Amino acid sequence: MVFEGLAEKLQNTLNKLKGKGKISEKDLTEAMREVKLALLEADVNFKVVKDFINKVKERAIGADVLESLTPGQQVIKIVNEELTALMGSTNSKIIFASKPPTIIMLVGLQGAGKTTTSGKLAGLMKKQGKRPLLIAGDIYRPAAIKQLEVVGGQVEVPVFTMGDKQNPVDIAKAGIEHGFRHGNDVIIIDTAGRLHIDDNLMGELQGIKATVKPHEILLVVDAMTGQDAVNVAEHFNEKLGIDGVILTKLDGDTRGGAALSVRAVTNKPIKFAAMGEKLTDLEPFHPDRMASRILGMGDVLSLIEKAQENFDAKKAKELESKIRTQQFTFDDFLDQLQQVKSMGPLNQLLEMIPGAGKQLKNIDVDEKELVHIQAIIQSMTKAERKDPSVINGSRRKRIAAGSGTTVQQVNRLLKQFDQTRKMMKQFADMEKTMKKGGKMKLPFFGK
Prior knowledge:
The structure is a single chain. The protein is of the alpha/beta class and 447 residues long. The protein has three domains: 4-86, Up-down Bundle (Four Helix Bundle (Hemerythrin (Met), subunit A)); 102-296, Rossmann fold (3-Layer(aba) Sandwich), CATH 3.40.50; 304-435, Orthogonal Bundle (434 Repressor (Amino-terminal Domain)), CATH 1.10.260. Helices cover 57% and strands 9% of the residues. It is built from 21 helices and eight strands. An eight-stranded mixed β-sheet has the order 3-2-4-1-5-6-7-8, sandwiched between helices. Helix 1 runs antiparallel to helix 2 (25-41), helix 6 (114-127) packs parallel to helix 7 (144-154) and helix 15 (330-342) runs antiparallel to helix 18 (367-378). The protein is flat and about 70 Å long. The chain starts with a helix and ends in a 12-residue tail after the last helix. The relative contact order is 0.10.
């Protein structure tokens, strides 16, 4: 879970204030001490923590908070606003060239995930209606070129390569000429990395920059390296002059120090965050939404955007009609399941629902259970999916054997599906009654 440790400590500290009718300076000082410790434990840069605490205290110590009717909520509001400001206030987008192509150069240390991120970014650009081209500029790491060709193939984006015997500066220059001739409006250059920053690496990157004059230089950093990620960002910015940062492996970083420090230390925005291993798992970074998630307020806007990306409006209308007429089948159920799965890991989706992260903290969201459900449904015949009432004892045994599950699991799914279908019908009837102005009967959740 993103920021799990930090989020829990901050929420616990601020919740103590929320319950108080009045807050004294002593209460505030104690709370800020706990917030400071939580941030330092989350590997946030010491100077960043110091400045953050001073800003919050300066704003919170005023009479507006101490004499407010809801002082705890006022403090939470201030912490939320300052956290947002710390990460950059607003979402910072790619600035596209007025005259295409827009040239984006990805830089960073070896192991940060540059090559995969190049593919993810190209896929995102394609989704936005662009015609991207990937340039294989890493000639040193074994199989780097092949890896880029594989990810390029997966997102259906062409890859320009000249092998590993040419100079990276010449490759970048030739790749851009190729993109210009073929009408590519976004060109992404995957450059070489090293295990540490050295003069050879910087000299090569400076040579590419001077030759192709990229519109955006984006630094790819591994969020899980914590404070080291901030040091790397500082060095690259000093030597190369970066335009923004892409944080990778943010879903695996329970501390969050890099996300909270990079912007403050470099004064360069975090433009994207990689929240998983799939090539679709790259999201624009929204500081306000991330701050909201850290404080347990959810991220409804991102959840809605994910749903809009993955759910088919026509199918949704057809589904609504089926629910009203109680014609909802296992095929529809499977379709919905696959759409939900395409939105990303369930625990990440739950984090976006206000309050859900805390309420469901100890509930283990077993992704394997979804795989079992899918296997059970796919082991049914068309007739069984359409009308589950025909599934007798022998059919249940066959479905269990075919799906690699037990008869008990098949029985449980059939029962849950029947209850879900009834509940959906009841809510559809309630909505119908309310629209007609009639009295609403509560659904009976008995036998």
